[in-house]
Design brief:
- It is a single chain.
- The protein is of the alpha/beta class.
- The chain folds into two domains: 160 residues, Rossmann fold; 89 residues, ProC C-terminal domain-like (ProC C-terminal domain-like fold, Orthogonal Bundle), CATH 1.10.3730.10.
- Helix content is 55%, strand content 13%.
- It has twelve helices and eight strands.
- An eight-stranded mixed β-sheet has the order 3-2-1-4-5-6-7-8, with helices on both faces.
- Helix 6 links the parallel strand 7 and strand 8.
- Helix 4 packs parallel to helix 5, helix 7 packs across helix 12 and helix 8 crosses helix 9.
- The longest helix has 23 residues.
- It is globular and about 65 Å long.
- Bound molecules: 1,4-dihydronicotinamide adenine dinucleotide and (2S)-3,4-dihydro-2H-pyrrole-2-carboxylic acid.
- 1,4-dihydronicotinamide adenine dinucleotide binds next to helix 1 and helix 4.
- Pathway: Amino-acid biosynthesis; L-proline biosynthesis; L-proline from L-glutamate 5-semialdehyde: step 1/1.
Amino acid sequence: MNNLHIAFIGAGNMAASLIGGLLAKGMPATHIHASEPSAERRDQLERDLGIHTHTDNAAACADADVVLLAVKPQIMREVCLALAPALKPGQLVISIAAGINCASLQQWLGHLPVVRCMPNTPALLQQGISGLYAAAQVSEIQRQQAAAILDAVGSSVWVPQEQLLDAVTAVSGSGPAYFFLLIEAMTEAGVRLGLDADTATELARQTALGAAQMACQSDVDVATLRARVTSPQGTTDAAIRSFEADGFRPMVERALQAAADRSAGLARELGGG
Ligand SMILES: NC(=O)C1=CN([C@@H]2O[C@H](COP(=O)(O)OP(=O)(O)OC[C@H]3O[C@@H](n4cnc5c(N)ncnc54)[C@H](O)[C@@H]3O)[C@@H](O)[C@H]2O)C=CC1
Ligand SMILES: O=C(O)[C@@H]1CCC=N1
C-alpha cells in the first residue's frame, strides 16, 4: 500500500481525515498529491502534512496510481468531465462522494475501473470504517489496492450491491455525527442537572469512549452489555424506559431512513446526464 501514489481531488474534511490516517500509517508524504482550490487549505496541508498540493486537478493526477475523488456530490459531474482527458487507463478511480453511482462516474470520466466507497471521519485516528463497492471492470488487484487504502485508516467491508452503499452511508458514513449529537445532548442534560459544562463534557465524552470500546472488545453483544448496566428498577432502567416510551428506536430508524433516502436522492438529482 505504501508504494502507491495517490491523488486526492478535493482536500476538505474527509480527504484530510484519510490523508492524516495514511501518513500515520507510514505512507510517505511524497506519495500523496492533493488538488484543492482554497489557498489557505493548500498552505495548511503543505505545512502540517508535507504533501504536494496543486490548483490543477489534472496536474495532481499525473503520476498517480489511484485518483481519489473527494469533492462534494454537487460538483462531481463538472469535476469529472474536466478531469476525464487527463486520466490514464491504468489508474484506479475511487470516489467517496455520497450518492454518486458508478454508472454516472464512468459516464463522466470515460474511465472504466471505479470503486465507490463510503468512509467516515474517524479515519483520521485510524478508527474509520468504510463500505466499498467495485464496478464490474475493477480487477482483483485494484480491489485489493482500494481495500488497502481504506484499511490503512481503519477497516472496510465490501457490499454486494451498489444500492447498499445508501445503507452504509446512513449507518457509518453519517454515523459519527449521531454519536456527537448524543454526546452534545448528554452534556446539555448534565448541565441542566447542575454539573458545570467542563465536567459534563468530560463525563459524556469519556462514557462514549468507554462504551464504544466495550462494544467493540467484549465477547458478548451490546444488548447484554446494556443489561449489565441496568439494575432492575434502578436508575438506568428509569432512563431506558423513558427512551423507549419516547420512541427512541423508531426515531433512530426514521433518521437512518432519511439519510439513506437522501443518498439515493442525490443519485437521482445529480447522476447521469
Ligand atoms: N465529511 C464526511 O464525514 C464524509 C464525506 N464524504 C464525502 O466526501 C466528499 C467531500 O466531503 P467533505 O470532505 O465533507 O467536504 P469538504 O467541503 O470539506 O471538502 C471538499 C473540498 O473540495 C474542494 N473543491 C471544491 N471545488 C473543487 C474542484 N473543482 N476541484 C477540486 N477540489 C474542489 C473544496 O475546496 C473542499 O476543500 C463528499 O462527496 C461527501 O459526500 C463521505 C464520507 C464521510
Ligand atoms: O453528510 C454527508 O452528505 C456526508 C456523507 C456521509 C457523511 N457526510
